[in-house]
Amino acid sequence: MDIVMTLVVLIVxxxxxxMFMEVYKKRFRKDQAKRGEIYLVALVVTxxxxxxxxxxxxxxxxxxxxxxxxxLVFTVQFFLNMEIIKAxxxxxxxxxxxxxxxxx
Length: 104
Hints:
Order of helices and strands: HHH
Helix content: over 70%
Largest sheet: none
Number of strands: 0
Mean pLDDT: 85
Structural class: mainly alpha
Low-confidence stretches: none
Shape: elongated
Number of domains: 1
């Protein structure tokens, strides 16, 4: 797999993790999860996804690049979760007339 395809897979992975984290926070933990728990779950899922991708999809680079990939995916998913997913959820809820005070 070349570097461009590796980056595309990592970005898609980050988007999927950010969506999973929203579901985890809202549905599984019912907004009771603390910040440390959220970071820990996101980190575990990120590392698991990156290691699996590296081993199964043969990402570019030696094993030493896995921490870099994990850092990039964690950072991108955090940004996606904070900015894009919440904006989409807020817009959707506003259209449906739902009050979601937790996303303000």
